[in-house]
Amino acid sequence: xxxxxxxxxxxxxxxxxxxxxxxxxxxxxxxxxxxxxxxxxxxxxxxxxxxxxxxxxxxxxxxxxxxxxxxxxxxxxxxxxxxxxxxxxxxxxxxxxxxxxxxxxxxxxxxxxxxxxxxxxxxxxxxxxxxxxxxxxxxxxxxxxxxxxxxxxxxxxxxxxxxxxxxxxxxxxxxxxxxxxxxxxxxxxxxxxxxxxxxxxxxxxxxxxxxxxx
Length: 214
Description:
This protein is an alpha/beta fold and 214 residues long. Helix content is 39%, strand content 21%.
């Protein structure tokens, strides 16, 4: 299902600041070599992540789902000098590619890559997160949300990607397991009295979530 007109997407990309040469190189490499290249954050979403970091100036950022490192580098672009990103990738091949990209663009001082299961890694990270970007297996979104919310700083934000899941969440009845999981996540967040959120139709849908003030 086509959610956003390709003409609209092209127009927004045209009037969004272009990606750096380094990011473009990663994007082109991923598209050319990775069978799941559609998972790559695009130019507009990448710039959105950079802008969010530039606006809120997070000290500690958690990314769940590294892929080939593009989104982490977009986050790092807007990071303050004392900021740190911890990014988690389950697939060894993608983690290796991301590690090479981080080293290539001298980002290792601010980006720490963890290989393994996020459920096992997150409890061992002793930080209050100012920004969490969830972009991993869709059936675990609620679990990730519940894991990070207690350790989200009072000024922190959660960004959840793919909340429109290729338009499949609009179908009735819902069919695929991922669409069902994302719809359940969206309802879970909407009904959570601890948080408030806004859903944006950027690319495949993004939700921005923060704790409610007491």
